[in-house]
Amino acid sequence: MTSFGQIETLDDFMDFVEGLEPKPKTIIMEDYIIRKGISHAGSRAPTIQLIGMIKRYARKNSIEVVLQMSHAKTIGYKFAGLVPTKNHSQSHQYDAIAHAVYYLQKIGVRESRVEKA
Fold first, then answer.
1. Does residue 15 sit in the same domain as residue 62?
2. SS3 82
3. Is residue 3 part of a domain?
4. Is residue 114 one of the residues assigned to a domain?
5. What angle do CA 62, 76, 5 make, to 5 degrees?
6. Binning pLDDT at 50, 70 and 90, where does residue 45 land?
7. % of the chain exceeding 90 in pLDDT
8. What total number of domains does the chain contain?
9. In the structure, what pLDDT confidence band is assigned to residue 97 with cuts at 50, 70 and 90?
10. Which helix or strand (DSSP H or E) is residue 30 part of?
11. How far, in Å, are 13, 19, 99, 112 from residue 104 at the CA level?
C-alpha cells in the first residue's frame, strides 16, 4: 500500500499507521542532524522528537526503519524523473516519494527511468 500526504504531528502519524493493515514492513524517512553553527536555542526540536517517536513505534512493531540523508531525495527525484516543488510547506510529501524511489532503486526493486529508456 502506498499513501500520500504530509505528517506534521505525532497524532497525524499515529492516526495514519494505526489504521494500516497489514502493518508496514519498512518506514523510510529523512534523517535530521543538527548542523554545527545552526542555533536551536529555545526550540523543543519537534522534528527530532517525532523521529524518535516513529523509531519507537517501529521498534515495538518490528518495522524496519531506513534513515536517509537529505541528498538521497535529490537523487530520488532524478531517478523518478520528477522536479522538486518550490513550495517548502508542501514539499515534504514529494520528498518522501523521492526518498522511497531512491530506496527501492538502491535495493533493486525498481528500475530508473534512465534504465528503461
1. yes
2. coil
3. no
4. no
5. 60
6. confident
7. 26
8. 2
9. confident
10. strand 26-30
11. 22, 24, 9, 10
Distance CA 103, CA 88 (A): 22
What grid cell was written down for 83?
522536479
Q: pTM for the full model?
A: 0.78
Q: Are residues 76 and 88 in the same domain?
A: yes
Residue 51 near residue 29 (C-beta atoms within 8 A): yes
Alpha-carbon gap, residue 82 to 84, rounded angstroms: 7
Q: Which pLDDT value is given to residue 64?
A: 96
**CA–CA dist 73, 66 (Å, integer):** 13
- Averaged pLDDT for residues 65-75: 93
Nearest Cα to Cα of residue 10 among 44, 42, 51: 51
Same domain, 101 and 91: yes
Query: Could you report the per-residue pLDDT of 76-96, keeping only the tens digit for each?
Result: 999 888 888 888 777 888 888
Domain that holds residue 51: 9-68
Cis upstream peptide for 22 (omega within 30°): yes
Question: Residue 34: phi, psi to the nearest 5?
Answer: -75, 115
Judge if 77 and 36 occupy the same domain: no
